[in-house]
Amino acid sequence: MKQLTIISGKGGTGKTTITAAFAALAKNKVMADADVDAADLHLILNPRIEKEEAFYGGRLPFLDRSLCNECGICREKCRFEAINDKFIIDTIACEGCGVCVQVCPQKAISMQENLCGQWFISRTRFGPLVHARLGIAEENSGKLVALVRQQARLIAENENMDYIIIDGPPGIGCPVISSISGVDLVLAVTEPTLSGIHDLERVVGVARHFNIPAMVCINKSDINPEATEKIKDYCQQNQIEIAGEIPYDPVVTRAMVAGKTVVEFEDGRITSKIKTIWDKVIRSFGQGNN
Amino acid sequence: MKIAVASGKGGTGKTTIAVNLALTLPEVQYIDCDVEEPNGHIFLKPRIEQTMSVGIPVPEVNLAQCTHCGMCAKVCEYHAIITLLDKVLVFPELCHGCGGCAYICPADAIQEVEREIGVIEKGKADSIEFVQARLNIGEPMAPPLIRKEKKLINPTKIVIIDSPPGTSCPVVTSVKGSDFCILVTEPTPFGLNDLKLAVEMLKVLEIPFGVVINLADIGNKEVWEYCKSEKISILGEIPFERKIAEAYSRGVPIVKKFPEYKEKFWGIYQAITRRIIV
After folding, report:
1. How far is residue A144's CA from residue A56's CA, in Å, rounded to a whole number?
2. Between chain A and chain B, how many beta carbons pairs sit less than 8 Å apart?
3. Which of A3, A56, A285, B50 has its CA 20 to 30 A from that of B248?
4. Nearest by CB to A172, which of B98, B137, B248?
5. Using CA atoms, how far apart are residues A200 and A207, in angstroms rounded to an integer?
6. A224–B249 C-beta distance less than 8 A
7. Which residues in B lie closer than 8 A to residue A111 (C-beta atoms)?
8. What is the distance between the alpha carbons of residues A277 and A281, in angstroms, rounded to a whole number?
């Protein structure tokens, strides 16, 4: 079983569009949406939720007012400025470290499990999907991503699947690291803009840092041919295979509006490009039988 | 006045809006809080005058003093320190720098040392005061870096805060404390879905907000319908124009190439000031 994560560094380069198209093309796979704080894959895959579970990502302090004598030691020791002068704990600023609990001479503060979101196992027209919803302004997205991936893995093992296709989050921080750790390949989707190139280099750096093989896909490649050449040069210098180029085409947005993957929506040049990319991905897994 | 520019979905044009506002308004400080992927510098081309290393304090254990009592491991909520029979393991990437272990250690065997997680850069782009931060590759935690960066806010200026995408902790850390937040979206199903999440976030944070619709002629009309039914004001619309996309791809801000657009960004700012006064 092989795991692929689609990432990009920069947001809005087409991760989810490509993940959804792969979902339609790949056989015998589980999908996982690891963009837990702005998930979009479900808008195309239209999942029927079969299982819904609460996600407790960490603990938060609760102050028992009847025990508090407002000595202020908790405020002084909190490094996250999460306790104000009225001794109200700002649960958004709080990192759940529990130092306030340790330092309180009155033992007025205790840690309690914090409901941070939900996760789901669903069926879609393309097979199982594991997805999640991080609560608004909650922390621990990395943990929730790890949970989503673990559930996807269990399904893949039980149902003897060949692939896990993971839609990654933007950026290079904790949810990204969590979405790529231990996968067989990352596909970095970029666009030929200076921002796209800048962000690609950083996200490829993260993949390298964790020793994960990477391939690059250049989306909207005809927007700026010079920049597309720059990306190719960068990839060549760094020995990164280019999985393919996809030109800008309004059909992509039209497919999204219709709630369909591009490959279901049209049988034209975009679909054929994405098919080529998927073929390269599976070839890199060393099993061209799908 | 502090104006944050955010969006649920990435790639909708946060940096475009933030940079062009910065170039349109007088007396601006631009702060790029997208420390994972900062892009404002590509367009503003600042002269960096000062670079500061930012670290978080992580424990360093003096084994000669350590009694292996295990208290440090017990209080660490992040499992960043583990005690074994003859040694103590510290996992610096998991440490949030709360200082709990050093505080609790009865043998006084833990000292805190700074570990760099990123850098802050300060400079000037013409008359714009420019601040950005970059998270080091492989580092998971953006919020401590963003918090340090926001200490450099200059309250005498119009402060434009360019936020990362999403709705989780780095975004909240960036937009918190702002007087107003511009939510940039695109009129597509993904844009709308993520806009709704960002709206929920701002309601929790109790920050007034309005929407800018970028690439306004692609997709469908549902974003307008949503804003109307939720009584969310639309501050401005930017059409999809190939010439704008091409300028963007080369790192050229819209108002530098097409000065007639200054009026549009000025209009967005005026819509904000009206909202804040009312």
Report:
1. 9
2. 190
3. B50
4. B137
5. 11
6. yes
7. 77
8. 6
Range A248-286 burial, b when 16+ CB lie within 10 A, else e: bbeebbbbbbeebbbbbbbeeebbebbeebbebbbebbe
Predicted confidence band of residue B278 (pLDDT cuts 50, 70, 90): very low
Q: Is the dihedral of CA B121, B124, B125, B129 positive or negative?
A: positive
Nearest-CB residue to A172 (from B37, B104, B193): B37
Could you give the angle at the alpha carbon of A37 between the alpha carbons of A120 and B144, nearest 5°? Answer: 135
- Integer-rounded Cα radius of gyration of chain A: 22
| DSSP annotation of B261 | G
pLDDT of residue A197: 96
Burial of A111 (0-12, 13-18, 19+ CB in 10 A): middle
pLDDT tier, B215 (very low <50, low <70, confident <90, very high otherwise): very high
> Model confidence at B111, in pLDDT bands (50, 70, 90)?
very high
pLDDT at B277: 64
User: Over the stretch B147-164, which tens digit does the pLDDT of each residue have?
Assistant: 999 999 999 999 999 999
Task: Please indicate whether, in this complex, the C-beta atoms of A92 and B205 are within 8 angstroms of each other.
Answer: yes
| Whole-number Å distance between alpha carbons of B49 and B177 | 27
Q: B91 — contact with chain A (CB < 8 Å)?
A: no
Q: What's the pLDDT at A290? A: 39
Phi-psi region for residue B219, left (φ > 0), alpha (ψ -120 to 50) or beta? left
Phi, psi values for residue B267, rounded to 5°: -60, -40
Q: Are B168 and A137 in contact (CB under 8 A)?
A: yes
Q: Which of B36, B96, B249 sits opposite A223 (nearest CB)?
A: B249
- pLDDT of A289 reads 39
pLDDT bracket for residue B79 (50, 70, 90): very high
Query: Cα separation of B17 and B184, whole Å?
Result: 8
3-state secondary structure A178-244: HHHCCCCEEEEEECCCHHHHHHHHHHHHHHHHCCCCEEEEEECCCCCHHHHHHHHHHHHHCCCEEEE
φ/ψ of B90, rounded to 5, equals -115, 130
Question: What's the whole-model pTM score?
Answer: 0.95
B9, B119, B169: which to substitute to probe chain A, counting the most A Cβ within 10 Å?
B169
Tell me the two tokens of residue A245.
């180029």
Q: Is the pLDDT of residue B110 over 80?
A: yes
List CB contacts (< 8 A) between B193 and chain A: 38, 40, 43
Q: Which domains does chain A have, with CATH numbers?
A: 2-46+125-284 (3.40.50.300), 58-115 (3.30.70.20)
ipTM of the complex: 0.93
Q: Which of residues 117-136 of B touch A (CB under 8 A)?
A: 135
Cα(A232)–Cα(B42) distance, rounded to whole angstroms?
A: 20
Q: Which domains, ranges and CATH numbers included, belong to chain B?
A: 2-54+118-277 (3.40.50.300), 63-108 (3.30.70.20)
